[in-house]
Design brief:
Distance between the termini: 24 Å
Number of helices: 11
Shape: globular
Largest sheet: 6 strands, mixed
Structural class: alpha+beta
CATH class of the largest domain: Alpha Beta
Number of domains: 2
CATH architecture of the largest domain: Alpha-Beta Complex
Radius of gyration: 23 Å
Oligomer: single chain
Helix content: 25-40%
Number of strands: 17
CATH topology of the largest domain: Creatine Amidinohydrolase
């Protein structure tokens, strides 16, 4: 399996995506005239810009958007990178002091609004350029002080919680979003295929995690979680890889995800170092059967709770009759776990354009853990599988001499 298009082609295919996302959001939020968000995922969703600073510290950003206009409030050092996505300098409001020069004829700080001393000052200055008297404004702001400042700046507006509109807008994905998710899933799948020869005694968890991360980064992904746990450690949910050396008979549980332009992948496989025991084999067979039955059920019109019931019933017919699980999958998009959930109470009807991870994990402290997880897009007639690497517990390419 190989990446079938270049990163340049990927970028070209998704140009203008943020404008389409804004259009879709306001289509789902007909009661809103504007929205203000400080949520990093929604800043990226509406503007197309995702700051690396969000990965290293608590970082204040905001987007103010109407159907016709968008501005970004961000730190001064961030402005040149933001200008790559928001090609209009007047849309970027800076706070703080940072020095970046511009060559003759190049757009830069000089074309941007005057910088402010603080985030709140820059946000207030940007808000003053909007006339929102009598308008309904979505307030997607968790910080109480920031929300209070916005309300004071827009005293003539009424405020609405836009959470439902964001959830509705994000539940199904646009073609450009799906393109990014296909790429993210493909390079994650490839990364797992690439480490199969490393599943042998003497390899460490960290060596495997490093190779998985390398492949994803090389192909435009940002490694977000690389869970590689082996032996009894495979029961440790969402644990970091360690210098633990693989031994014959170990289970190796891989739960891997990256992002590409903000869009997530999430998949899992379990491998055995050498031949599995009868217990390992029978338990995994039950989990895999449940996950595959769940995957086969994905289609428009089915309830998410019914997909969950199919998975649970199938697993319990095998070697794990007392299997328990609070959910057997979840939506994926700007976050690796998002609405809708595939759970016992979920009344969500699956629709074309939704993207789901389906999974049937099992964890037993003192014994180990195993899981298989795949990602699929709901289509008009069924689903499109995004992760297709082999799911066998014992794979020939993992055999050690």
């Amino acid at each position: 399996m190989t990446v079938t298009h270049t990163l340049d082609e990927l970028q070209k295919s998704t140009e203008g995506l943020s404008a389409l996302c804004r259009q879709k959001f306001f289509g789902a939020a007909k009661e809103l005239d504007a929205v203000i968000t400080t949520d990093p995922a929604h800043v990226g969703y509406l503007s197309g810009y995702r700051s690396i600073l969000q990965d290293v510290t608590l970082y204040a950003q905001a987007v103010i958007a109407t159907p016709e206009r968008l501005v970004l409030v961000t730190g001064a050092s961030d402005a040149p990178a933001a200008l790559e996505r928001l090609s209009e300098p007047s849309a970027i409001w800076r706070y703080g002091l940072f020095y970046v020069s511009s060559a003759p004829g190049a757009k830069g700080y000089e074309e941007m609004p005057q910088h402010s001393a603080s985030f709140s000052d820059a946000l207030s200055a940007a808000l003053c350029t909007f006339d929102m008297r009598g308008l309904r404004v979505g307030m997607d702001v968790r910080n109480a002080s920031t929300a209070h400042g916005i309300q004071q700046s827009l005293s003539g507006a009424s405020f609405v919680d836009p959470a439902s509109a964001f959830r509705t807008s994000r539940a199904t994905k646009l073609p450009g979003e799906l393109h990014l998710m296909r790429h993210a899933s493909r390079i994650t799948d490839e990364a797992i295929c690439g480490i199969l020869p490393m599943i042998r005694p003497g390899t460490t968890e960290l060596e495997i995690a490093s190779e998985i991360s390398r492949h994803m980064v090389r192909h435009g992904g940002i490694a977000r979680f690389v869970v590689v746990t082996s032996g009894e450690r495979s029961s440790r949910v969402d644990a970091y890889a360690r210098h633990k050396v693989l031994q014959d008979g170990d289970l190796v549980r891989l739960d891997i995800g990256c992002t590409v332009e903000g869009y997530c992948s999430d998949m899992a496989r379990t491998l055995c170092v050498g031949m599995p025991t009868d217990v390992q084999d029978s338990r995994y067979a039950a989990l895999l059967a449940g996950e595959q039955a769940e995957l086969a059920a994905l289609r428009p019109g089915i309830l998410a709770k019914d997909v969950y019931d199919i998975a649970m019933r199938t697993v319990r017919q095998g070697a794990l009759p007392n299997y328990q699980r609070n959910h057997c999958g979840h939506g994926i998009g700007l976050h690796s776990h998002e609405f809708p959930l595939i759970g016992p109470e979920s009344q969500t009807v699956l629709e074309p354009g939704m993207v789901f991870c389906v999974e049937t994990p099992y964890y037993e402290i003192g014994w180990g853990g195993m899981m298989v997880e795949d990602t699929a897009i709901i289509t008009d007639t069924g689903h499109e599988l995004l992760t297709s690497s082999a799911r066998a517990l014992h794979q020939p390419s993992a055999i050690h001499p």
